[in-house]
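A favour, since you know our structure tokens better than I do. It will help me judge whether the discrete encoding reads sensibly. The space below this message is yours for that.
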Amino acid sequence: MPVVLADEHQIQQVVLNIINNARQAIEIHQPHGQIKITTAICESNVRITIQDNGPGIAKENLRRIFDPFFTTKEVGKGTGLGLSLCYGLIKEHGGNITPISRPGEGAMFIIELPMVHDFASAVEPLVSEEANRSNPQEGVGKKVLVIDDEEAILEMVSESLSRFGYQVDMAADGETGLRQLKQNHYSVIFCDWKMPGLNGRQVYERLRETNPELCKRVVFITGDVINEQMRKFLAEESRFCLAKPFALDELRSVIKTIVAGREVT
């Protein structure tokens, strides 16, 4: 495929968001489903097509799915911001995102991003702009632990935060995470809610027994819908939870809030 000029994490966020929506729609519709992702060249664009065999999208909703806060999910199971953010990110890249669907026939999202013909000249000004906008010393002296069984999440968070000077340690399970917490001091701990072995809540409860002050630095992350039981726990413990896929800005904002000693709401 030809080169496109894009923020890899933002494009990943868009693709994961659409895949996650497709997964949730399929699970409601049938026990087994399929999500198909293909790429192609279309004139001067690279095209990414994400297609599922779920229930599809009603015609009246198809026109509104990119509107902020529009959602067809049950109350408390979706903010309606996901596809709106996807639309904004793709537009910022000079591309287009188009939904195609008929009820009962699944849904298709077509993402088109412009190809780069002169890669070197296109990259140079953007690299300079990013360098001016970013503060590579932002995380110096701050140590972050990420506990997650998904290797892709560990690598993405580590790579993203390291660019801003943060020292990032990773743990692929709860037991490993607890051992690292005994041996090191961390400014913030990101912990996946759902993992094999010890899940996020169990890690938190063990930490509360040994070092309750450290619990104030825990931020949960999850790829599942936040149910009522989880919502109640987060409210009682005054803990924050980031929904996957999340943006780098969200990670950094939460870190700054916790380091500053402010309550996370």
